[in-house]
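1st attempt posting a full record on here, be nice pls
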Amino acid sequence: MFDTPRTSWTERLVHVPVGRVRLEGDLRVPTGAQGAVHFAHGSGSSRHSPRNRFVAEALNAAGLGTLLIDLLTPEEEAVDLRTAHLRFDIGLLAERLVGAADWLAAQPDTAHLRVGYFGASTGGGAALVAAAERPELVGAVVSRGGRPDLAGAALPDVRAPTLLIVGGRDLPVIEMNRAAFEQLECEKRLEIVPGATHLFEEPGALEQVARLARDWFARHLRLAPAEEEA
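the predicted structure (as tokens):
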């Protein structure tokens, strides 16, 4: 499926303390990892999203660590299923993304790794807000079918190189991404996948997303030679 050689990795269930809550996630750290990508799932989704896990495996095979985490507690998820409110609370989601990135920076097996964010749907907006709050820690952002417009006033403050990926048939979201793209002042790229809808369910569409994300993170998160020797 991918031309990147498969590498070995360890995976463990983690509980990440953020404020008053503990968030449950799955952490994979490939042997010799050169970066760690934190996934911010979208509206009504979870860390078990098959689309995010597909992308995560492509990143793992390229030697990048991944943290797939539920940004809401089980109790909050139950409320959100009824109200669909918390999934649009970008401030709350971004706060938890920042806390999880800080946690990664404090763990022995990931402390030396640069952090990236991969956001989907509303998670795309939250990832950009979190990146603006931690410019010294976050080295790259990728948004898949995301809502970067929800980052609002934080967009001009993002310093991490940012890749926005949108399906060619996801017309309303294309316009939202174009508007947000114009406000970004960092290194940036907008990639439209021809024929793809919002969930990239068409044959080959998700594979293209995974390749784009893999190449973006591999380029921007890998340690420079001087850092490798330190």
